[in-house]
Specification:
Keywords: Transferase. By secondary structure, the protein is α+β, with helices and mostly antiparallel strands. The protein has four helices and seven strands; from the N terminus they run E-H-H-E-E-E-H-E-H-E-E.
């Protein structure tokens, strides 16, 4: 397993849009096609990458750079890179790709010169909170757009 993060290009769209999470997870994360469509209309500061193992698409990562994103709320942490979306396709879960994707998240945050990473999750059964807790994230006490915020230093 060797995960790489690549900018989304036209030639990769079909492979990325074919990625799906397990049926029980569909209410937890938006489909890849939705993220790709939304990204086209997001302001500067949003970034979306395909997650690949060689020539195989395994997931999608979307992040917000708070230094250049013009639509932050007053209470948003301007020193925290924000994970907007992180998904690993059903058939690739349980193989270490999620852990490797978090490594990419931390790498991006370091490249941006930011000391923390923030993310949110939907607080319903089957969510990703145990995964994030196992990787050092803690709840901040904030609820953002109906989702629970977590934070971790890097």
């Amino acid at each position: 397993m060797s995960l790489t993060r690549r900018p989304v290009v036209r030639a990769d769209l079909r492979a990325l849009m074919a990625l799906k999470v397990a049926p029980a997870q569909r209410q937890l994360v938006a489909e890849t096609a939705v993220t790709l469509a939304q990204q086209a209309y997001e302001p500067p500061g949003t970034h979306v990458w395909g997650l690949w193992d060689g020539d195989t698409a395994v997931g999608l990562l979307a992040m917000v750079d708070p230094r250049t994103y013009p639509e932050l709320e007053p209470e948003d942490d301007r020193e925290a890179a924000f994970v907007w979306r992180l998904m690993i396709a059903e058939e690739h879960q349980g193989k270490g790709y999620g852990r490797a994707a978090l490594g990419e998240v931390f790498s991006v945050a370091r490249d941006w010169g930011l000391p923390r990473v923030a993310l949110t999750f939907t607080d319903i059964p089957g969510n990703a909170e145990p995964f994030y807790l196992a990787h050092g994230f803690t709840r901040t006490g904030r609820v953002v757009d109906g989702e629970v915020e977590m934070m971790r230093g890097i």
